[in-house]
Amino acid sequence: xxxxxxxxxxxxxxxxxxxxxxxxxxxxxxxxxxxxxxxxxxxxxxxxxxxxxxxxxxxxxxxxxxxxxxxxxxxxxxxxxxxxxxxxxxxxxxxxxxxxxxxxxxxxxxxxxxxxxxxxxxxxxxxxxxxxxxxxxxxxxxxxxxxxxxxxxxxxxxxxxxxxxxxxxxxxxxxxxxxxxxxxxxxxxxxxxxxxxxxxxxxxxxxxxxxxxxxxxxxxxxxxxxxxxxxxxxxxxxxxxxxxxxxxxxxxxxxxxxxxxxxxxxxxxxxxxxxxxxxxxxxxxxxxxxxxxxxxxxxxxxxxxxxxxxxxxxxxxxxxxxxxxxxxxxxxxxxxxxxxxxxxxxxxxxxxxxxxxxxxxxxxxxxxxxxxxxxxxxxxxxxxxxxxxxxx
Length: 392
What we know:
Aspartate Aminotransferase, domain 1; 4-stranded antiparallel beta sheet; Aspartate Aminotransferase, domain 2; alpha/beta; 11 helices; 7-stranded mixed beta sheet
């Protein structure tokens, strides 16, 4: 029998990977489902199955409110943003199509696009500034008659740079081009309005700023796109069981197999937490923490900071390097000596690191969250100063 892990004080700065801690309601909702419901939604007619189905619907309803769409059935549940992006890209793009993306994308975008490129789609990758921001004027230079889609992250998971979605959405809509957004880093952290921003497809994950569990996520699909969007998975949906053909309506067309109801229960609770607290409140808190850290970091010798200098132009993450210390060495020292948990390396985004000049070494990334405190920022700055001074 393994000995239990010894508890020690930690400072959790890995919220860009997955948020922690979760609101109490997230865990409570999952326990309630497990202990009091347990049924399979849409698969039976008894009251516990109906209760499970209600959980799924209420989660869609909460996400509809958060994302600014007008129909909860346009929210498809997936196990993460990666699956959602695969549905969007593999389901709509065909040989001969042309796609525009940026040099700051995560591999959840780049790998499907590189695969599709090998199958005959054209791909243009727009350069970004060395802090990771896109100049929308560069889009017109790569537009082609066969351009089918623009794919863009809302904010980089490496620099936190926030992209001008509204401007890009207008360019795409005016030209009849689809606009697909990777909101893994921003759903629950920044305001999103899919209608106002002219977004056709938006992929999100549940376990970051939506305060849900891992294994949850989804895809928003604009009205009428379901007639063109091929499902990634086929099978039982609990609907139209008399037919052996896949249902052609939302959301069932894209939700084959028994859903992760216990996870979606937690996700719904997390989204409700965001709605209750208010996005403005959450954003203000995280921006304050980020600004405090950036100001302190800028005063330390031997530190290189990546991304926008103004906390208002980035999400609550900061990538940096310490002179004379590899990112992996720094992470080990942060953990073992200071109890600081962070992420280092290439963050599954080699294109972004090439853009900012940190490939293949990568960076140290601190990701702050709503539950972090200012005294943790102060302690972290002292830890960084200590590591840096020991290398000078």
